[in-house]
Each structure stands twice: as structure tokens, then as C-alpha cells.
């Protein structure tokens, strides 16, 4: 799938990632300074084991953003989004919303729900997933604690709330 960037003439290509993309995903996450940075190995696994449910946005051969996601074994009708990132240079062009839609509509099986966890202070992600619910013409809920602060042990981390969109397309 190709879409035109709204602020430039560069072609944006949305595709599923491969292991060769893992390091670029790690670099984008590191540069974000806001996302939880996982090990490079984690991004390699996401690009290899969960490629069919994840997506990258490529501009002129460079990864501009990504969505890592998977289908939980106990919820085969749900796409669970792990991380969404857009490199600084490419923000403000709607890439995150386009990647979420692509990830939802191009899995190996039909889906009815899209989920993510978001901290209550992360207004950017709350806005993104609210807009994604509108794009998908589906109801959403954001009122259930998924992981409490206690679940993180001694690590200082805000609770993670479940953002659930769906049912979608019914």
C-alpha cells in the first residue's frame, strides 16, 4: 500500500517489517525519548515473529515510523498494539493513524478489536487511539486498569490503562 505524504511529495510505503528493520525500530524508539526502550533483540523478534501484525512506514527507503503489534493467544479476534512510533522528521503527517489502520486491516485473520495500554498522562496516545476509533467507525473504552503501578514493582511507572476499540466492522 502506498500513500502520499501530506507535507511533501515523498511516497510513503506501508508494509510489514522484516528482521532487517529491527535495528531501525530500536533507533527510532531510542530517539523518541518518551517510549519505553526495549532491547534491540526485542525489536528483531517483533519484526520476525510478529511481522504479519506489525507495520512500518517507509519514506525514500528509510523507516519513518512503526507499529509493533500481536494477536494475543487467548483473544484471536484482537490486535494488541505494543508500540507506535513516528520519527520526529515525519510527525504531523498522520502516519501513526495510517499505520494503525494498515495493521488492523492486513492481518492473517479477521479481527474485531484493537487494544493498547496507555498511561493516563499520555495525552498524545489517547488522542491517537481516539482518532483511530473514529477512523474505524467503532466504539471505544478507556476505563480499565491493565497494569497497576504495583505491578511494576520498584520501577517508577504509571499505571497502564486498557484502550479497547470495537467491535469493528460489525
From TrEMBL:
EC number per UniProt: 2.3.1.178
Signal peptide: none
PROSITE patterns assigned to the protein according to its UniProt record, in alphabetical order: GNAT
Keyword Methyltransferase: no
Presence of keyword Acyltransferase: yes
A Pfam family recorded for this sequence: Acetyltransf_1
Domain N-acetyltransferase: residue ranges: 12-170
Pathway: Amine and polyamine biosynthesis; ectoine biosynthesis; L-ectoine from L-aspartate 4-semialdehyde: step 2/3
EC top class, as a word: transferase
Protein keywords: Acyltransferase, Transferase
InterPro entries reported in the protein's UniProt record: Acyl_CoA_acyltransferase, Ectoine_EctA, GNAT_dom
Family statement drawn from the similarity comment of this UniProt entry: Belongs to the acetyltransferase family. EctA subfamily.
Record-given protein name: L-2,4-diaminobutyric acid acetyltransferase
Organism: Desulfoluna limicola
